[in-house]
Amino acid sequence: MARLRVLSELDTARTQYYHFKAIIIAGMGLFTDAYDLFSITLIIKMMGRIYYDHRKGQNQFQTPPLVTSALVAAALLGTAVGQLLFGRLGDLKGRRRVYGFALLLMVFSSLASAFSICIRKTCVFVTLGFFRFMLGLGIGGDYPLSSTIMSEFANKRTRGSFIAAVFSMQGFGILASSTVTVVVCSIFRAASKSSEADVAWRLILMLGSVPAAMTYYWRMMMPETASEMQWMIRYTALVEHNVMQAAKDMEKVLDVRLSMIAEEYPLPPIPHPYPLFSREFFRRHGRDLFACSSTWFLVDIVFYSQVLFQSEIYKRYLDENGKVDVYKEAIHVAWIQAVITVCSTIPGYFFSVYFIDRWGRVKIQMMGFFFMAVIFFIIGVPYYTYWTTPDHEENKWFMVLYGLAFFFANFGPNTTTFIVPAELFPARFRSTCHGISGAAGKVGAMIGSVGFLWASHKKKEYGYSKGIGMQVTLIILGGVCLLGMVITYFFTRETMGRSLEENEVDSETNEVEQHNNL
Question: pTM of this prediction?
Answer without folding.
Answer: 0.87
